[in-house]
Design brief:
Length: about 280
């Protein structure tokens, strides 16, 4: 689907004017941060958390600007009110400049990529790549290592690539967070080593409410076979079970506790939607 408008610094403009000047060195060098926000049925999911993380990412990489959360939220709402599509993603880009006043805020609409529904039963395949992101807690435009790893995954028919650090531990996927599940214990890489995913945050809220506990610890790749299930979280895929990592295969990727958590999170999203609709 083609979209009619985009937002630049809070101003709605025709989509055909959505260009970045070649002279924009900050953009060319990846000096920026971004967010991808799901919009479905008129509901913008978790806008508060996405806006806050965008600003936090900017602080981490020392990107100075003049935008605050209220401005970003208003710009997002102005664009969604003018967009008639039922389901799409918003790409929010905050690009640095020579001065805080020269920073740019772009918001564009993108067609969503939904995983095949059968993958939620069969699980996905993953490969591993030896690499580490600079400033892992920032969702920055410096995506070269992740981009290359994802390309390698696509070339091998895999859903994503897991990033392995210098200690041989899994940190995250190229666009996903990673968990192991043993009985009712969720095991996650330390928060300092991975992006604080918005979906990750809400999945943990649901997990705690349903009697799961969280253990943050380095996840050695050579120990991952010990988990009953392993899974990914992200905005487009929600909770995605994993069938294989390289040569390690889980014959039953969706264990009963994982099935419970997946169902609970789907219900959580439905409840969130109903709460937002009641406020409108």
């Amino acid at each position: 689907m083609e979209y009619t408008y985009f937002s630049h610094n809070g101003k709605l403009l025709p989509a055909e004017q959505a260009t970045v000047p070649l002279s924009n060195i900050a953009y060319a060098y990846g000096f920026g941060v971004y967010e991808t926000i799901r919009v479905s049925g008129g509901i913008t999911y978790f806008l508060d958390e996405h806006s806050e993380r965008l600003l936090q990412s900017a602080r981490i990489i020392n990107l100075e600007h003049t935008f605050d959360k209220a401005f970003i939220d208003k710009a997002v709402r102005s664009l969604t009110e003018k967009t008639s599509a039922k389901a799409y993603n918003l790409k929010v880009l905050l690009i640095g400049g020579r001065t805080p006043e020269a920073a740019d805020l772009y918001i564009t609409c993108l067609n969503p990529l939904f995983p095949d529904r059968k993958l939620y039963r069969s699980g996905v395949s993953l490969i591993t790549e030896q690499c580490e992101r600079l400033y892992p807690q920032a969702k920055s435009l410096n995506m070269f290592t992740s981009y290359q790893a994802y390309r390698h995954a696509q070339a091998q028919g895999a859903y994503d690539a897991l990033l392995i650090n210098h200690a041989g531990c899994i940190t995250e996927g190229t666009r996903t967070n990673f968990f192991g599940l043993q009985d009712r214990v969720l095991v996650s890489p330390p928060a300092a080593d991975c992006l604080h995913g918005v979906t990750r945050h809400h999945v943990l809220q649901v997990a705690r409410a349903h009697g799961f506990t969280l253990k943050e610890t380095p996840l050695a790749l050579d120990k991952v076979a010990a988990y009953d299930s392993v899974f990914l979280t992200s905005t487009p895929s929600r909770i995605m079970p994993v069938r294989s990592i390289d040569d390690q295969v889980w014959d039953h990727p969706v264990s009963p506790p994982l099935a419970e958590l997946m169902q609970a999170y789907d219900q959580y999203l439905d409840d969130y939607r109903q709460q937002v609709l009641k406020k409108q």
